[in-house]
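Read as chain and fold; for instance:
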Amino acid sequence: MNLSPVFNRSNLINKSGKYTINIRVNIEGKSDYLKIQGFPKLEKKHWDFNKKCVSNAHPFHLKMNKILENEMNKIDRFFIDELDKNRILNIKDIRYFYQNQKQRESFNEFVTRNHRKYIKDNELEYRTFQIYRTFLTHLNEFKPEIRFYEINRALVKDFNQFLLKKKSLKGASRKKYIDKFKVMYKEAAKANLVQYEALLFDKLKIKVEEPKRVALTVDEIKKIRDMDLPENSGLAQTRDEFLFMCYSGLYYSDLKLLKEENLTKTKKGTVIEGERSKNKNRFIIPIYKFPKAIEVINRYRHTTEDEYLFPNTISDQKFNKKLKDLASLAKIEKNLTNKVGRHSFTDIMIASGAEEQFVSKMLGHTKTETTREYYNMNIEHIVNSKFGEGEIEL
């Protein structure tokens, strides 16, 4: 296939003195002329017939020649991509592609449309919704308009490198965005917008690091509990909520949804029952084991007409930011996030001898294998366990 821009292909003469620029496509001796949508007509003096481009006599010759180059590159890439799929194109195929490709939505627009549909149909959990939203942000920053014919191994690899080098994302983070790319690609294939290639995402070599769970020691929890906060710091409720998470193992998103109806009185004390917002799994938490947790509940219950136990809760992002302020004041160097409360609770439960199936139910895990990962023994498990008490006389 040969491509070249052509000035006034029919050698017309008109009153304005301006003529159309076309792209001439030649395949095996057969030619066609494609009109470039939106490209202005030119006077003869503004066309370089030898170089077949807009002459430097035109004030915008650089920009206009770039447009010509881009348009021919689109056709070229489409032709090569189809050859890679063992499809031999003819003149009609090229014309159909070129006339319709501007009317079709881009892959970015397709992702946006599906994202909006997920929101409308309420199909996504909040965390998954956030991942799709961030994936779309990264995709648009990487390339604002990705045409479906451009999606190939090289583009997927470049996107992975963009996430690695430009966004400084580690393996686990990159993998979750590549996974969302893969989901949207499959959806596009179902809609017959691309021809599905099973090996498109192979050989990316994304190394996923083992997650490092951060948990506080019992002494660090007490340090946060007992420290004096500066007046007007606005951290009192943040501290109470974080401590409650250390006592219950709840994520902040689940703590915000706690209601009076989630509290059940038993012969041993108060138990929290509910469903995780993430997976709707039921959890049962023996909160009576932590008397300070009951104090926190009593401090906030009935303080507002709101139906939730904790009033005026904030977003996860703002909560995590306040936790960093809390850690700084307590001189704790660990990276404090709302997950740390859950991990700290789990460590305390394991050290106290709680069996795996009970801890799994407290955390609302879908699989016991997820809980089992917490049972990789660490120093705190040993020191805080009954085994760690006292010396052994020999």
In short: The mean pLDDT is 84. The chain has three domains: 2-101, 107-190, 218-388. Residues 270 and 288 are 5 Å apart (CA to CA).
